[in-house]
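To: structure desk
From: M.T.
Subject: fold request, one chain
Message: Could you run this one when you get a chance? Sequence is below, nothing fancy, just the single chain.
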Amino acid sequence: MTNTNMNMRGKIIFYEDRNFMGRHYECMSDCADMHSYMSRCHSCRVESGCFMVYDHPNYMGNQYFFRRGEYADCMSMMGWSGSIRSCRMIPMYRGSYRMRIYERENFGGHMHECMDDCDSFMDRYHMSDCMSCHVMDGHWLMYEHPHYRGRMMYMRPGEYRSFREMGYGGTRFMSMRRIMDSWY
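Reply: Done. Structure tokens follow.
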């Protein structure tokens, strides 16, 4: 039995230009490469659901979290110089949350099991580095800096043995929060 509500449909509308101008593309699921629908994307409107957007195709590169709302100038807001190139819909989840974070790659070093938001790994766990994790339950966002700031990474259930091999070699994740159903 799953706690994911499959009836929750997300909808995001991407626009080529700022302030919801130019051609647009409506998306209600994952999209690995938006280039076939539009050449650039500089604003968007989330009508329902939550989405991660990426600055490279195939869900690669920098990530940014969007929930219901209007984003008239995405690129300035996110500090990106390029464009949104792919997006992933985050399914609504109702249930318990559980993640194990590890100090080293391949689940090495000190381990801490988390069930709620943590605004600073250093303050709570005296942990200066987090290089791998195992998400058992729920959907999470990990952040580069304490207090949910900086680059972010979407974590869904699964094993993440090496953030470095995922393209986050120089990034140290220092805080995390659950993606709650109230965000939808």
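Reply (cont.): Helices lie at 74-78, 121-125, 164-168. Let me know if you need anything else for the meeting.
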